[in-house]
Design goal:
Dipeptide-binding Protein, domain 1; 8-stranded mixed sheet; single chain; globular; 4-stranded antiparallel sheet; Dipeptide-binding Protein, domain 3; 19 strands; 3 domains
Length: about 350
């Protein structure tokens, strides 16, 4: 299956409050669907909201560093030992121990397929209060990198609730609407944090309208084609910055016309990645699976469209132009359905 990639840029807009507020309203086009990290990509969303943390994470320099964990050591090909930071607490004040982390990671590895992607099944046991042992089905040379993957958040199940270790704790949750967050009093510098409401909007345009109306203080993932109007509004500051993710396009090769590699290649070279980056007002055009600031980046390909090359491939595959100039084969027109997440305004713009 082919991947077609464009590195995206994120947009943050900030409205200047008239006076110092006790709380901040943040608008986003996505929201965690629950507080259950075993469900789908909820663990990733909870981390992005400032609620959850992992044993390891990636810092702003791109290095893997300990978050809840202090260190990791390899015992043999399939066995590692992880040492936790001493004195770490869940948001209810319960101590983070090896057994409690092992319970969380075991549940994640059992119920969430994303937590099985790198190592398969994992046996996780507590060695002592701050040390746990991981024996995996498949080997890895970089266990800290695996434990920095999005599914592996640390949490405590207690009295029917889940408690995490991030800078904010869940005060109230309304599905598909909002999270009301309070500072986690057991997290450093808690006294400097305000109360936060993370509110979901169905798309970038409705979020931009809410920002303009003063309904939110911060707005993420605004459509770039509407920024000029927002910049004209008093009290609104727009900031654009690159983030470490890619926009990808996947071919559904179960479709008869896309099962032909020549058609997929034609689509590949027909896309002008440089033009897409220009429309997004940021990012870098690439076919690489990794961004250019990593040692894994490799991309010497042409980013501009090759119309004649694409036409030749379609002709070869039997999709020739009819009298109206449409590509057809055996009386059937070549048609493609392009589906994208509406909560990512950049994807909508590229369509």
């Amino acid at each position: 299956m082919a991947a077609r990639l464009v590195l995206a840029a994120a947009l943050l807009a900030v409205a200047s409050p008239q006076s110092l507020r006790a709380s901040v309203v943040i608008g986003k086009t996505f929201l965690a669907g629950s507080t259950d990290p075993t469900a789908g990509s909820t663990a990733w969303a909870l981390t992005s909201h400032g609620i959850a943390e992992k044993l390891f994470t990636v810092n702003k320099k791109g290095n893997i560093v300990g978050q809840v964990a202090e260190s990791v050591a390899k015992i043999d090909k399939l066995t590692w030992e992880v040492t936790l930071k001493d004195g770490y607490l869940f948001s209810d004040g319960t101590a983070v121990t090896a057994q409690r982390v092992a319970n969380a990671l075991t549940e994640l590895n059992t119920k969430n397929s994303g937590a099985q992607a790198s190592l398969g099944m994992m046996g996780i046991t507590a060695v002592d209060g701050l040390t746990m042992r991981i024996v995996s089905e498949r080997a890895t040379p970089v266990m800290d990198a695996v434990l920095a993957e999005w599914p592996f958040v640390v949490y405590l199940k207690k009295d029917g609730n889940r408690f995490f270790t991030g800078p904010f704790a869940v005060k109230n949750f309304v599905k598909d609407d909002s999270f009301e967050l309070e500072p986690n009093e057991h997290y450093p510098r808690a006294e400097l944090r305000p109360w936060v409401t993370v509110k979901r909007f169905p798309d970038g345009q409705s979020l931009a309208s809410a920002l303009e109306a003063g309904e939110v203080d911060l707005a993420f993932h605004l459509p770039v084609d509407g920024l000029s109007g927002l910049r004209d509004q008093a009290g609104i500051t727009i900031k654009s910055f690159e983030v470490g993710y890619h926009y990808m396009m996947w071919h559904n090769i179960r479709k008869p016309h896309l099962s032909d590699v020549r058609v997929r290649r034609a689509l590949d070279i027909a896309l002008d990645r440089s033009e897409l980056a220009q429309e997004l007002r940021g990012g870098r055009a690439t076919r690489s699976l990794f961004p250019d600031y990593t040692p894994y980046f490799l991309d010497n390909s042409q980013q501009n469209a090759d119309k004649s090359g694409a036409e030749a491939l379609l002709d070869e595959a039997g999709w020739v132009k009819d009298a109206d100039g449409h590509r057809a084969k055996d009386g059937v027109h070549l048609a493609l359905d392009l589906v994208a997440y509406p909560q990512r305004p950049g994807l909508v713009i590229m369509q």
